[in-house]
Amino acid sequence: MPYPPVGLALQPVPTLPVPTLPIPTLPTPVAVKSEDLYERVGQVGEGTYGKVYKARNKQTGEYVALKRIRMEAEKDGFPITAMREIKLLQSLSDRHVVSLKELMVSKGAVYMVFEYMDHDLTGILQHPQLKFRPDHVKCLMKQLLEGLGFLHHKGVLHRDIKGSNLLVNKLGELKLADFGLARLFQKKRKRDYTNRVITLWYRPPELILGATAYGPEVDMWSAGCIMVELFTRKPIFQGHNEITQLDHIWKTMGTPQKDTWPDVEQLPWYELIKHVSSESRPSKFREIFGRIMSPAALDLAEALLNLNPRGRPTAVEALTKFAYFTEEEPAACKPEDLPKIEGDWHEYESKQRK
After folding, report:
1. Beta-carbon contacts of residue 34 (< 8 Å; ≥ 6 apart)
2. The predicted structure's pLDDT at residue 34
3. Is the pLDDT confidence value at 239 over 60?
4. For the CA atoms of 330, 336, 342, 346, what is the dihedral angle to 10 degrees?
5. Pairing of the two strands 166-168 and 174-176
6. Strand extents, DSSP E, 83-192
7. Omega of the bond leading into 335 within 30 degrees of 0 (cis)
8. DSSP string spanning 221-252?
9. 47: number of CA atoms within 13 Å, CB side?
10. What is the distance between the alpha carbons of residues 235 and 250, in angstroms, rounded to a whole number?
């Protein structure tokens, strides 16, 4: 049963019985029991199910990210979300996916040890002095779409694409992180999943309307939100709940029409909240963003933000069939040519600074 749009609390995440460490018993990475190997530098984030710390390897001097797995009641078992993320990351080796180095047990706590990434996109966009040129924006979008193309080719939905889950290191390399909500999908047919995924501001309208059978197109909507955010430096749709989120989407992208989104009336919650779109509104997307985005950028972003999920391009199509990447100048800069940023800039740290 899909959840109703507003008002009901989410059910607790189920857990698995506690396995014997290493957790889980897979070939790699191995669990390391060393309470003195890493020295914590400070907290840099809050993941799906635990805090994230910057730490230094005392032996090598290398910096890593330690993601503490929340074990609220150890007797209830190892969290299934953490188990899923570990298993998925073991199968995803790519330059655009953050690397899981090992698992560590320290003083009864379990940590996932990741390569350290200096920034996340939300933190970067809040940097007061940083200015992105068009070739910088294109470089970041190119890397995001390449990463999504890899995931979808591997049959994986990320289901939580947002700025704080897009990490950037000092070499300008962008990598996808936080796979706690990721799931495998079948390319030839859509399975049923929960629609209570993807942070609200980046959640596509079909999920808000109750869709449970979906595929990579949900990640592509989130990518469209990120693309516009790279130009505006703030999230494009900022609703307080599902109803106001839909209203923000309709005000910008127009209300759904039968000729452009024939299946919309079949979605589970359409009848419950169709009053949000009772008044037909045209799209104002180009009117709002035409001054800050090039025509080719508008074309791609508008396609990614197509209300009808069937109309959104795949990641590969976005990279190969749109003038933004194939024809428009300037071309994407190389990652190493992105602006150099002093210090660490993550969403968590930006909030602390404020």
Report:
1. 104, 106
2. 52
3. yes
4. 80
5. antiparallel
6. 100-106, 109-115, 119-120, 156-157, 166-168, 174-176, 183-184
7. no
8. HHHHHHHHHHHHSS-S---SSHHHHHHHHHHH
9. 23
10. 15
pLDDT digits (tens, 9 = 90+) for 322-332: 999 999 999 99
160 is catalytic: yes
Name the residue type at position 236.
I
What integer pLDDT is reported at residue 14 of this predicted model?
Answer: 38
DSSP code at position 319: H
Catalytic residue among 118, 160, 178, 344: 160
Token pair of 139 as six digits: 């470089």
Q: Can you give the pLDDT at residue 348? A: 67
47 pLDDT exceeds 80? no
Q: Nearest to residue 307, comparing CAs of 233, 203, 159?
A: 203
Nearest to 117 by CA among 35, 176, 192, 203: 176
CA distance 28 to 99: 12
Tokens representing residue 353 in the block: 């600074």
What is the residue-wise DSSP string for 267-282? STTHHHHGGGGSS---
Given this model, what pLDDT does residue 350 score?
Answer: 58
Q: Which CA distances in Å does 216 have to 108, 153, 205?
A: 38, 10, 14
Higher pLDDT: 46 or 153? It is 153
Alpha-carbon distance of 162 to 222, in angstroms, equals 7
Q: Are 305 and 289 in contact (CB under 8 A)?
A: no
Phi/psi of residue 10, each to 5°? Answer: -70, 150
Contact (CB, 8 A) for 314 and 220? yes
- At 48, the pLDDT band (50, 70, 90 cuts) reads low
Beta strands in the chain (DSSP E): 15-16, 31-33, 38-46, 51-57, 63-69, 78-79, 100-106, 109-115, 119-120, 156-157, 166-168, 174-176, 183-184
Q: Using CA atoms, how far apart are residues 305 and 153, in angstroms rounded to an integer?
A: 21
**φ, ψ for residue 250, nearest 5 deg:** -60, -40
Rounded to the nearest angstrom, the gap between the alpha carbon of residue 145 and the centroid of all alpha carbons in its chain is 12
- Cα distance between residue 200 and residue 160, in whole Å: 10
Phi, psi for residue 339 in degrees, rounded to 5: -55, 140
